[in-house]
Amino acid sequence: MRLTDEEQAILSGEFGEVPKIALAHQIKVGDFFGALDFAPVSQAHVMADTESLGEAGVRWLENLAAASDGSGRVRIPTITDPRGTDFTKAKQLRQADWMLELERRAIDAFVKLGVSMTDTCINYQTVLAATRGEHVAFGDTGVVIYSNSVGGARSNFEGGPSALSAGITGRTPRYGFHLDEHRQATLRVRVDWTPETLNDWGALGGVIGRLAGNYWSVPVVEGLERAPTSDELKHFGAAMASFGSIALFHVVGITPEASRLSDVGGEKLQPQRVGRSDIEALRQSYAVDTKVDVVVFSAPQLSLYELRSLAQLCEGRRFRIPLLAVTSPQVKPDSDRFGYTDRIEAAGGTVFSGMCFYQSYAREIAEANGWKRLATNSAKMVNILGGYGYVPMLASMEQCVSAAETGELE
Amino acid sequence: MSGSDPVKKNEAPVRFQPKPPKQPDGQGRIFVARHAMGRKVRGEALVANDGFSARYDLDRIAGIFSRPAHLLAGQSYVGKILVLNTAKGGVASAWMLHEMHSRGKVPLAIVFNSVNPILAQGAALGEITMLAGFDEDLTREIPHLAEVEIDPQGKTLRVL
Q1: Does the domain spanning B30-159 belong to CATH 3.50.30.10?
Q2: Is a pLDDT exceeding 70 seen at residue B12?
Q3: Contact criterion met (CB < 8 Å) for A157 and B6
Q4: Given a cut of 70, is residue A125 above it in pLDDT?
């Protein structure tokens, strides 16, 4: 990679040990992808739940923090993805003390490095949305795909170590979606049905993600009958990223880089049709049982309006099985102020803050609580939780709330 | 390899149709990658036209592929050279490869037809040899359980 004078100085240790370690890591990755130089970035978002980090990752963070001697603090706004717990409700999840201790150690290290513990995967709705052309280093695939596609920002998937490195150095290797040529469409999808519910938006994203198939594919979508809301695009993108490892999509006439199909080279591609039957087939593939042990709304964290909808659906009900709703620390106070939390919890549900269900030792809490059959309206989550031993089922928010009341998914 | 060409421009997404692997032993054949990192290694190849995610596909404690639908389900990946179609899943794999490395429950190397940044970032932190980006579908060209050598310096995989 071509290094500037400042980057040479960082690499030689003139800026301290931590920036040197961070830049060396970034050069390894940049060289692998053939990046020619670094792009300055304005924000970083670090995914680092301790189930992923393990003891080794936490120790790596602690060593960085210990070596920082004031030089290793992040130099751009750097925030965090959800943690592996909500400390105030960890007992309810039956999480073990060692999990919480690992979380505390990771948080201490991050704070020493100057990271802001926002603990959210919906920072584009709650903290600071990245704008068109803004180079950023975001972790969490849902954050990346939303920011790239809806905001027109430029980020690759940045795993925790790389996103933190970007926060420390203020730059990231210039490859992939930082470059114009990778933002052109490679797959043209014509949909003949516009979803109405969040689970169907997620399912549509999942179907397109599977079609696209790998990180370097960029779907361009035509045929939607209306502009989706932010929450709809949130589920659509998060599922596409989860099912297909996709980091960027375009919707003709809606997303900023595709005012016209030809803006992203879509007119050169043969359209593939996706319809309601494809979405139904995906949903049906998860409809393997009617009994439900737990209902979960998470992945991505719920917006204020999703919580409002959930609160309305909870009115007058009494749940037989646990209903867990997960939101961000930025949304939770408003949910409390507006009475949504009370209305959900009056029915027997629980609103968690700052965590994500599948990043919170999902396998261990399933065993501790006897949970296996799980209903959710998140297509992303049904794609993930099979690997954790769950039988996940995809349904609308309304159907899920009814399932919490009856223990059965209709 | 240029920074603008992790895959050929406008190439169809890498999703090769499942076909039975070629049976010839392929001895002596050399395949050249567009991306490479790590140290030179030699070992037994586990080959499958399937994806890879540390979070979704593995029992990282036991060191085996655990997702029932995975083509390598039940097989140990420890010390093996994985030859797979594509990197999948979320950003957790970047930490997980490092964590697996710390316990010695890690593949010797990973070879992908198509890689995503997360696995490359994880390999960089976890000090795992990695090759990716080929003109051929390597999951068809490399015999399962073949002895192979990976030379990141030359960006080559050689069937021994």
Answers
A1: yes
A2: no
A3: no
A4: yes
> Which CATH class, in words, describes the domain spanning A5-179?
alpha beta
Q: Do A214 and B11 touch (CB under 8 A)?
A: no
Q: Which element (helix H / strand E) includes A126?
A: helix A123-126
Q: Is the Cβ–Cβ distance between B156 and B150 less than 8 Å? A: yes
**Interface residue of B5, B16, B105, B121 to substitute, partner A, most A CBs within 10 Å:** B121
DSSP annotation string for B40-105 = -EEEEEEEEEEEE-HHHHEETTTTEE--TTSTTTT-B-TT-EEEEEEE-S-THHHHHHHHHHHTT-
Q: Is A22 an 8 Å CB contact of chain B?
A: no
Is the pLDDT assigned to residue B27 strictly greater than 90?
Answer: no
Q: What are phi and psi of A385, to 5 degrees?
A: -75, -20
Question: Do residue B124 and residue A28 have CB atoms under 8 angstroms apart?
Answer: yes
Question: To the nearest whole angstrom, how far is the Cα of A313 from the nearest Cα of chain B?
Answer: 31
Contact list, A157 vs chain B (CB under 8 Å): 90-91, 116-118
Contact list, A176 vs chain B (CB under 8 Å): 6, 117
Per CB-CB distance under 8 Å, the chain A contacts of B87 are: 214-215, 245
The phi and psi torsions of B144 (rounded to 5 degrees) equal: -60, 135
* pLDDT higher than 60, residue B5: no
CATH node for A287-406: 3.30.499.10
Residue A206 near residue A281, CB atoms below 8 Å: no
Same fold, A5-179 and A287-406: yes
SS3 A237: helix
Lowest mean pLDDT among A65-79, A202-216, A357-371, B115-129: A65-79
